[in-house]
Amino acid sequence: SIRAAAISSDSRFVLIGNEIGEWDGDKHSLLSLFEISTGRKVQTFDKIPQRIHTAVFSPDDRFVLSGNDDATLTLWEVATGRRIRTFRGTAVKISAAAYSPHHRFALCAADDHTLKLWNLSAGRDIRTFRGHTGNVTSVDFSPDGNHAVSGSDDKTVKLWNVFTGRDILTFRGHSDIITSVAFSPDGHFVLSGSKDETLKLWDISTGRAVRSFKGHEHWVSSTVFSPDGRYVLSGAKDDILILWDVASGESIQRFEGHSGDVNAVAISPDGRSVLSGGWQGSLKLWDVNTGDEIRT
To answer: Which end of the chain, C or N, has fewer beta carbons within 10 A?
Structure first.
């Protein structure tokens, strides 16, 4: 099954993290890089003997960060597919990770209710964020890198000061576990997806939910903003992706074709296509305007 998916900043490549085999046999995870225009695999990274939970590009697309079941955060070089460094600072799985806009730091979320900030060049953790009362499931940096947002099993979303590690705001309103969070491109809003089958848009200046998006028939697994901030995309356990208008909260496009849960979604930086990864191992590229499947 595909556990993670990301599109490079130039919209040329897609990164996927998927599981191969059975865990009671030769089970492992693989990171692979594909060229979007041809569907050709252009890079395979070293085998990961554990389940992968997250994978993200660095802002310049030269590196990839992955978070794994064995409590490690791994830095990879895209050009060679080699491990550059492994970060160990927790005893539990890494469920989510984010790269800072300035390349220097990474933030990871773990199943011990905390987030950790890492200095990538020094290879050490420099700050631990404490405040959630449940496992942290998702994390993102603000566009300026000064703040971070996290979602948790405790049904809350938290806004953090990256430099102090202090909890600035707690957003409450979901009735179930938070599965995904993302900052808007202008940094003024936060998007959250939940097992309560909804998405919510939060104003970080007030801490209030300004909009709810309702339309999925099962819990939301992944959410992302479009590059211009006008739309959001969600994938869910109902096998469907939905593109939403941020201003109105209305569904404007549905992408149907998966035969199982949609685990990961991404929008290309040029805004013309969306990507989805499914539980049954299928990766699909879709046309934003028509909702048609371009490639599997």
So the answer is: C
